[in-house]
Amino acid sequence: MNTTYDIIIIGAGPIGLAAGIEAQKAGQSYLIVEKGCLVNSIYNYPLNMTFFSTSDRLEIGGIPFPSIHAKPTRAEAMEYYRRVADTFELNINLFEQVNHLESADEVYKLSTDKGTYFTRHVVVAVGFYGIPNLLHVPGENLPKVRHYYFDPHYYYRQKVVVVGANNSAADAALETWRKGAEVTMVIRQPELGSIKYWTKPDLENRIKAGEIKAYFNASLTEVREGEVEIQTPEGKVTLKNDFVIAMTGYQPDFSFLEKIGIKLTEDEKRYPQYHPETMETNLPNVYLAGVICGGMDTHVWFIENSREHAVKIIKDIVQEEQTERV
To answer: Candidates 3.30.2130.10, 3.30.413.10, 3.50.50.60, 3.40.50.1000; correct CATH number of 4-131+250-325?
Structure first.
């Protein structure tokens, strides 16, 4: 017999977990389905990444997040969210990809690569870290080009070009340089971008000292084996190169949202349609939660300011059920 859940949550990041906790507290039957590991996006962050927020702003479910640092690390966050999942004994299916969602006799039928489920409500909390913003230059598909940065040791004694001007690019440049890489930054803007206050002066000093080379108002135009080509205000520059770390940001899986029927604005922001008070989309009983709500504005929603999405959603579902009983 097929079980019909009250709620299926797509995504086991912090906000998906928060939605599961709220569903559990409200007595709703639920299932969280995740295509990767628990808090998959955080797992894919750089090995030595430090959050900008303090640990209390990353807490969910009322569980304290202790940290020995002023700002918690990636490793501490993964430990914390594992403990949260275990504390609430959350119902989670990991490494299960959602392929399709369709309406079926007043409920939704959700198909994955491992099974089929039925649910009255759906919460989409898929984040945005899975699809990198591409450079769209010749040679970008070469193995030497990386859109994810993890461990600086890999780049020891290598000639590395880091593309980008914000936190991820700054961390990659500084960490690989400290592990013995020869680092060049390619930055579209005339100056460094939004960088953590304890990192920015360090990078500025490395650039000023000539230890890290930086091209401003510049762009990477071609990648070739053993070298890259950069367009600068003074003209084209060819550099010997072993690796390109393209920290150009990421975007939500808009194709998935469109496939299941969620409407998006037609401009470059691609904002999904939802009600800000309930988080319900144009699809009845289908909700959005977390950073996915910002479309291409991926720096609008974070863990700390989208935790409340879970509360809004479950409140709306419970109120709807109470109304139906009257």
So the answer is: 3.50.50.60
Cβ within 8 Å of residue 138, ≥6 positions away: 222, 223
At 2 the pLDDT is 67
Q: What pLDDT, on the 0 to 100 scale, is given for residue 88?
A: 98
Predicted local distance difference test score (pLDDT) of residue 3? 85
Helices 200-208 & 167-178 angle (0-180, nearest 10): 60
Domain boundaries for CATH 3.50.50.60 within the chain: 4-131+250-325, 134-246
Return mean pLDDT, the chain. 95
- Using the predicted structure, report yes or no on whether residue 104 has a pLDDT greater than 90: no
Cα–Cα distance measured from residue 231 to residue 216, given in angstroms and rounded to the nearest whole number: 10
CATH superfamily of 134-246: FAD/NAD(P)-binding domain (3.50.50.60)
Find out whether 194 and 166 touch, Cβ atoms under 8 Å: yes
Q: What pLDDT score does 115 carry?
A: 94
Q: For 121-176, write each residue's pLDDT tens digit.
A: 999 999 888 789 999 999 999 999 999 999 999 999 999 999 999 999 999 999 99
